[in-house]
Amino acid sequence: MSNIKIRTKRQDEKTQIRMLIAHPMEHGRNRDAKTHALIPAHFIQELTVKLNKTLIITAKTGAGIAKDPFFAFMLRGGNIGDKLTVSWLDNLGNKETQVHIIK
């Protein structure tokens, strides 16, 4: 099961895109409550969104984003049945991709 949840909604000539990503987003300065050891940095570095095969967004993100980040934007265009592909890559080399069909 993917840790990216995508919702789309057509509005006039636009498509509202909302994404929720389950990720710890640790910046490396927090300490463990029991051991007081630093929790290593673990955050999303790059987020990409493609409509069909066309890249529409590349976002370079960092450690300042909260846990389980939520991203939303309006896309001019996007038709029912188009394929939206959302991918992320974190600083530890983990990556995830989710495909969503616009409804």
Folded structure, characterized:
This protein is mainly beta and 103 residues long. The chain has one domain: Immunoglobulin-like. The protein contains no helices and 7 strands. The protein has a 4-stranded antiparallel beta sheet with strand order 4-3-6-7, with no helix packed on it. Strands 1-2-5 form a 3-stranded antiparallel beta sheet, with no helix packed on it. The radius of gyration is 16 Å and the shape is elongated.
Tags for this model:
four-stranded antiparallel sheet, Immunoglobulin-like, three-stranded antiparallel sheet, 103 residues
Nutshell version of this structure?
The protein has 103 residues and is mainly β. The chain has strands at 4-11, 14-21, 44-51, 54-60, 70-76, 83-90, 95-101.
Helix and strand arrangement:
Elements: E1 4-11, E2 14-21, E3 44-51, E4 54-60, E5 70-76, E6 83-90, E7 95-101
Number of domains: 1
Content of β-strand: over 45%
Number of extended strands: 7
- What is the helix tally? 0
CATH topology (fold) name:
Immunoglobulin-like
Specify the helix fraction band: under 10%
Give the averaged pLDDT, no decimals. Answer: 95
Largest sheet at a glance? Answer: 4 strands, antiparallel
Rg of Cα set: 16 Å
| Apparent shape | elongated
Lateral arrangement of strands in the main beta sheet? 4-3-6-7
Query: Which regions contain 5 or more consecutive residues with pLDDT less than 50?
Result: none
